[in-house]
Amino acid sequence: MTQTPKTRGAGHVERSETGRGGSHEAWFAEGERGKTKLLIAPTRLGELYLRNRTLMAPITRTRVVPRGQDWLAPAYYAERASAGLIVSEPVPVSERASGYADSLGLFTDEHVEAWSTVTRAVHEQGGMILAQLWHAGRLSLPEYQPGGADPVAPSSLAPDGLAYGPKGPVPYGVPRTLTRSEIPFVVDEFAEAARRAKRAGFDGVEVNAGDGYLIDQFLRDGSNSRTDCYGGTIAKRSRFLIDVLDAVTPIWRGGRVGVRLSLAHERGNLRDSDPVSLAKYLSREISAFDLAYLHIVEAVDGPAYPPSQYGVARAFRNAWPGALVLNGGYDARRAEAALRADQADAISFGAPFIANPDLPERLRSSEPLDAFDRSKGQLIFSTPLHQ
Ligand SMILES: Cc1cc2nc3c(=O)[nH]c(=O)nc-3n(C[C@H](O)[C@H](O)[C@H](O)COP(=O)(O)O)c2cc1C
Questions:
Q1: I need a labelling partner for 175 at 20 to 30 A (CA). Which of 117, 218, 231, 246 fits?
Q2: Predicted confidence band at 371 (pLDDT cuts at 50, 70, 90)?
């Protein structure tokens, strides 16, 4: 099969640079031979009844601050309401939780009002949306913290890599260690945000325990060197997440709460010495909450990732008794194969949903996918609609 991109109208590329387009075409041919496409078949995750298994992954846009004409969030999310479920971009649970400019939190009444316009727009299109509850922890900068303070983390260990500073990329700094007595207050911020998510009309919440952010920083031994009851053994490192779920599930019931984890993903050089054991432990401990699903990020840049990293997803599938949503570099063909092989109950898509707001319909009708152009770094934080 030739890999030459064919253009069809402005910005339309039938085969993307990531190769998604080519695979999609092959999958389309199979679909045409009469197989049912599981990606567009309904399913249930806990108390959430989904019209399809094509979920929208959380995608930071740093454009969700209501500012007159720039307030595009309701239209942006409504355009993608045909997803089986939308997971909102990460929503800071407090002022200190923020890691980027212009992300809309859930810690004031104004935030509730602003998010209400988004949930209403999605519901009007028949969609469902969860608020992703988020604390960036050490993946933040003093510029985004109240009073210019250092960001907080389980331990004072700086992440590698560059942060998106207000004026461009800058190295992350050394975070301040959260004291033992501060931790219940942070847990409480998650609970407060969960309450506000309810008032804002969300259909549930996803707790972001992955992607190198605060809860992930507690979970993994590469970023947690605490010697108190929140550090050391796997059980102690997991305690912060368990505390958050203890606080959030009475507000929403487990069946409307998802948890996102990315133990295979080393963002900000965040590592764990034994992610498979951590995955097995979490599967057992978290199952007590009867959650809607676990959302596992396997890789963020596609199948080029080493196969060993997929061991974490397998560990979850074997040990986790509930529904599993997989994410990371999926094209239609791989996603359909994963559902067919019962490796997952649903698949979430990030970049494909930016480029294809009507992704489920494209999958249903086997329309070619538009490419997401990762080379335009700016798109990440200022993507116009339809890009
Ligand atoms: C523009 C963009 C912004 C993203 N922002 C976040 C984020 O803030 N938090 C997060 O957990 N994941 C974020 N992601 C990751 C996605 O949720 C997803 O894990 C990733 O894109 C891999 O899925 P994909 O291969 O289908 O794109 C982002 C992805 C993209 C493309």
A1: 246
A2: confident
